[in-house]
Amino acid sequence: MSKRFTAGAVATATALALTVTGPVGPANAEPTVSRTFTVVAEEGVSVDAAIAAIRSAGGTVVSRTDEVGIFQVTSERVDFAARATAAAALVGAAQQKAIGRKPKLDRIEQEHLLAATKKAAKDSAKKRGTKMDPLDDKLWGLEMIRADKSRKIEPGDRRVKVGVLDTGVDASNPDIAPNFDWSLSRNFAPDIAEVDGPCEVASCLDPVGTDDNGHGTHVAGTIGAAANGFGISGVAPNVSLVQLKGGQDSGYFFLEPVVNSLVHAANNGLDVVNMSFYVDPWLYNCTANPADSPENQAAQRATIAAMKRTLTYAHRKGVTLVGALGNNNEDLGAPRTDVGSPNYGPTQPYPRPIDNESCWDLPAEGPHVIGVSSLGPSYKKSDFSNWGTEQISVAAPGGWFRDGFGTDTHRTDANMILSAYPKHVLQEEGSVDADGNIVPGAETFVFKECKTNGECGYYTYLQGTSMAAPHAAGVTALIVSKFGKNERRGGFGMDPALVEQHLYRTAAERACPEPRLQQYRNEGRDETYDAYCAGGLNFNGFYGYGIVDAYAAVKTPLKPNARP
Question: Going along 196-305, which residue ranges are E strands?
Fold first, then answer.
């Protein structure tokens, strides 16, 4: 019997995300270079019909995700994408093509490494927060969201599983290891030499529990680093951390690994998934942007359909979805011209005016995603953070290197978010030497903690909405830990809609600043960073329903059907 998939309840399928098909041969075509595509079937089309359409267009199915109608396809036809788009059974095809290596240094998240002038953090900056683990006095974000107090009521439940959909997780870090779930963690993003460099292992599929970028480890530490008297502690220090490697070592997030990560989370009872990225190569995916070629329009329509369908599937299977709003310093309800897309492939980026009605920043603007903006220690919106009443849900500490103008904390590393980081990535970046020692000059932003047995953990500062989202994800995990229930089919969980409602209702309301038009000239930013905050105390474009509050979230009684 053929399986069918819809945006609603998807046919009950026991297969995991990558169900490899048998031979499905391509139509006759002139042999050229084999290309790889992610193909999306139309709503309600059977798997068999979709495969037949792919074969007719000249493609071979390599793997498939039946639950949401996504197929990985290879083809030697130069016109495969056009033929797939023309097929009634298919939305379209997005080619996986990457040329050139993306640098690992993110100019927003690691701004402090690129700063022309920088001061050492004063002791007064270092003493923010309440100390739990040795480095927790540097975690001002825990104090801002009252996670230092919430753990006295609810430190998290081991049965609650938080997926880190990212570049991997370094499970060797002593703060990550106690909470790492080896049984459910997976790698869905094999290394691609063209963007990631030479593969570290013969299969090009990095082992579970590794992270050759560092981003995912940093996110994981903020969510759930163990409160073990060592290093740092996370917002929810007793929950389980599940690696969902959907990002490349280079920092790209391609459509198919992201989809497969989310389907795996949905099918395996994960409670929360953090998504601190956008799906490459388009900052905004548009249905029919006049600036795009027909092929690129079709690829973006396929991405939109795939992401919306998959996010809905995960939500209906019990996953609370948390996403970073992005670091493009723009109102998501009134986006500027996109000048950075596509960010990989043979086509250079070109200007794309963005129509808000037909373009989406995914996954942040996808269905059921809790969108998180970034704040600095002063509670101001970080200059880089996206905002806007259309998509924002809540705000959280994400760091802001330039915060504190007029004080001795201005332009100091301590304004950012400290979390776990892989030693070998710090060595590649040059801040730790071959012997594992912090190099002179890096002591303000890299920290090393060692046990008596010689086991060491490393930590560094980053900033971004990528760092804000895991603070919110940690609070959602605490909500599930506190109010979740045993489920009929085994496991433990909570309705994502109820989690979201409680998160909003317990967030600390914060009004727009005055003047509402915030400028960042003192911080060295031009008019492109100007941000207007619309809305009232209950909900506005900078803070959404408020700043996530871990203590209020676990102390306030649950009120189903209550409004935020």
Answer: 240-245, 272-275, 285-286
For residue 48, how many C-alpha atoms fall within 13 Å in the half-sphere facing its CB?
Answer: 3
Residue showing tokens 């490697």: 245
Mean pLDDT, consecutive 10-residue segments, the chain of 564 residues? 38 33 40 84 96 97 96 95 96 77 58 66 44 91 98 97 98 98 98 91 96 98 97 98 97 96 98 97 97 96 98 98 97 97 89 97 98 98 97 98 97 97 97 97 96 95 97 98 86 95 98 98 97 98 98 95 76
Cα–Cα–Cα angle for 453, 454, 455, rounded to 5 degrees: 95
pTM for the complete prediction?
A: 0.92
For residue 457, the Cα-to-chain-centroid distance in whole angstroms is: 23
Tokens 């049965």 correspond to what residue? 159
Residue with tokens 């759930």: 224
How many angstroms separate the Cα of 125 from the Cα of each of 407, 417, 509? Answer: 10, 13, 25
Neighbours of 393 (CB within 10 A): 25
User: Strand 272-275 to strand 161-166: parallel, antiparallel, or no bridges (unpaired)?
Assistant: parallel
Longest Cα pair distance anywhere in the chain, in angstroms?
71
Distance CA 267, CA 18 (A): 12
